[in-house]
Amino acid sequence: MDPRRAAVVPRRAASAAEARALVGEEGAAIVSGIADEQAAIAFARAMLGEDLRRVGRQIEASRSAAARDGAIARAQPADARGRRRDLSADTTVPMPPHNDGFAFGDEAPDRLLLLQVRPARTGGENFLLDGLALLGEVPADLRRFAWSVPVDHSEPGFPQSTPSPIARTTPGNRVQVRHHEFLAPVRGAAEVDQWPFLEAWHAAADTARDGGARFRLEAGEMAVVDNYRMLHGRHGYDDPQRLLYSIWGWTTDAVAVPSGDLDFVGV
User: Fold this and answer.
1) Alpha-carbon span 240 to 138, nearest angstrom
2) Is the distance from CB of 101 to CB of 262 less than 8 angstroms?
3) Spatial separation of the C-alpha atoms in residues 30 and 36, rounded to whole Å
4) CA 207 from centroid of its chain's CA atoms
């Protein structure tokens, strides 16, 4: 078993139709020539067509935005487990592998577009981990745990009342595999026994991130991602001018489509 084999470099698509096919079959694609945020959203509309229910930019990944949002998060109280968020985390270290929108539970987007506006001069390479492939590279007992044991997906400040397994088949018959740094057992008698499984899941994701394939997005390039299937992030960088937009999309296959704005900063 080798978790590094779950890391993938997406193939390039020359059209919206080709991108849609690649994302459906392989979980991700890269497209070029995306001039700005408006062009990215137009591409999403062309790619997803009548299946699209909602799309828009959610996150500005920049040094200035991280400083602003980090100040707000630091003023928020710790959660019931004593945890806090750090939205201004050190960019020189790799991000934890994650699916965007995990704090919002069933309302997390099922499609993700990562538009590179300005790449870092050095570093900041992207990584994508195929969650289903990653489950195939872990011991059988961890795989059974991931598919069968409900866990707490809450992020500090975003409590979720309905636990669910790390891996599941959605009502739209999509496979959803999740990872983020705040995964925790449901409180109760089994909590002590479940922590080792979560720690092993974190270790597998980190091994795939650190030792697996990575790729670089240049200005105007965009990764189009199945956010249910793929984990993503970036490696460390120190260029204050780096800028990337995370654009979220929901289709008819999404578990739930939010009706209002999703505020992941100011709660």
Assistant:
1) 37
2) yes
3) 15
4) 17
pLDDT in tens, 188-245: 888 999 999 999 999 999 999 999 999 999 999 999 999 999 999 999 999 999 999 9
Tens of pLDDT, residue by residue over 112-135, are 999 999 999 999 999 999 999 999
Amino acid present at 260: G
Give the residue carrying structure tokens 């670089």. 216
Six token digits for residue 170? 């959605």
Is there a contact between 258 and 130 (Cβ–Cβ < 8 Å)? no
Helix/strand/coil percent split, the chain, to 5: 30, 25, 45
Q: Which residues contact 199 (CB under 8 A, 6 or more apart)?
A: none
Of residues 99, 92, 57, the one with CA closest to residue 230: 99
| Positive or negative torsion for Cα 16, 22, 27, 29 | negative
Domains of the chain, each with CATH number or no CATH: 3-251 (3.60.130.10)
